[in-house]
Amino acid sequence: MPPTPDATPPAADGLLDDLQHQVAVFARRAEQTRLGGVGQVRNSMDRAAYLLLNRLDREGPTGVKALAAGMGIDSSTVTRQVAPLVDTGLVKRASHPEDGRAVVLELSPRGRARLNDVRFSRRRLMELLTEDWTEDERTDFCALLTRFNAALSARHTTVTAAASRDVSRAPAS
Predict the structure, then answer these.
(1) 30 shares a domain with 49
(2) Angstrom distance (rounded) from CA 170 to CA 173
(3) 62 with 56: CB under 8 angstroms?
(4) Range of the domain at 97
(5) Is pLDDT of 41 > 60?
(6) pLDDT digits (tens, 9 = 90+) for 114-140
(7) Per the database record, which ranges form the HTH marR-type domain (predicted)?
(8) How far apart are CA 153 and CA 161, in angstroms?
(9) Same domain flag for 92 and 118
(10) Total domain count for the chain?
(11) What is residue 55's predicted lDDT score, i.e. its pLDDT?
(12) Does residue 26 have a pLDDT over 80?
């Protein structure tokens, strides 16, 4: 019997089960190693710090709200995650170039050096893990992983927006 339009064919169920399992294993392995790379900097920077430093490096001085929006998290989370980076001198607070009353976060020279060390280590790890892959396989994997992450991000945005609408429609008690 052919599958109904809203049902997943049984063969696809098995593939989707395998896919969800492999994503779960990947998440666990990534967390175990924090994709820490090789050498002295292995496991020395957590995911939140790495992603924040990376974004500041790519975008330059950025306000907390813009940083939060770009990362798909709330401002209080960014503030909490940035605090230890400021305390350790990896990030510095500065006056906004156009509005001196506003504060922006920027990567310090020490933060840039640290980020470069971690990037090098992680890049070396990716090289080791995929040393028997062709360049095309690396390219395809990166493209598919980028597409997968974009789909996750879009899904998160949709779910978050729907939850916000539901909360705003809820009757006050």
Answers:
(1) yes
(2) 9
(3) yes
(4) 16-129
(5) no
(6) 999 989 888 888 999 999 999 999 999
(7) 16-150
(8) 12
(9) yes
(10) 2
(11) 94
(12) yes
Kindly give the interhelix angle for 47-59 and 109-129, rounded to the nearest 10 degrees. 110
Which amino acid would we find at residue 162?
A: A
Within this chain, do residues 49 and 86 fall inside the same structural domain, yes or no?
yes
Examine residue 78 and state whether it is found in any structural domain, yes or no. yes
Task: Write out the DSSP string of 13-79.
Answer: HHHHHHHHHHHHHHHHHHHHHTT--SSTTTT-S-HHHHHHHHHHHHH-SB-HHHHHHHHTS-HHHHH
Question: Is 171 part of any domain?
Answer: no
Do 53 and 124 belong to one domain?
yes
pLDDT of residue 7: 57
- CA 6 remoteness from chain centre: 32
Per-residue pLDDT at 116: 93
Given a cut of 70, whether residue 37 has pLDDT beyond it is no
Asked whether residue 58 falls in the same domain as residue 21, the answer is yes
pLDDT tens-place string over residues 2-12: 555 555 556 67
Q: Are residues 82 and 114 in the same domain?
A: yes
**CA 79/CA 97 separation, integer angstroms:** 20
**85 lies in the same domain as 25:** yes
Burial of 147 (0-12, 13-18, 19+ CB in 10 A): exposed
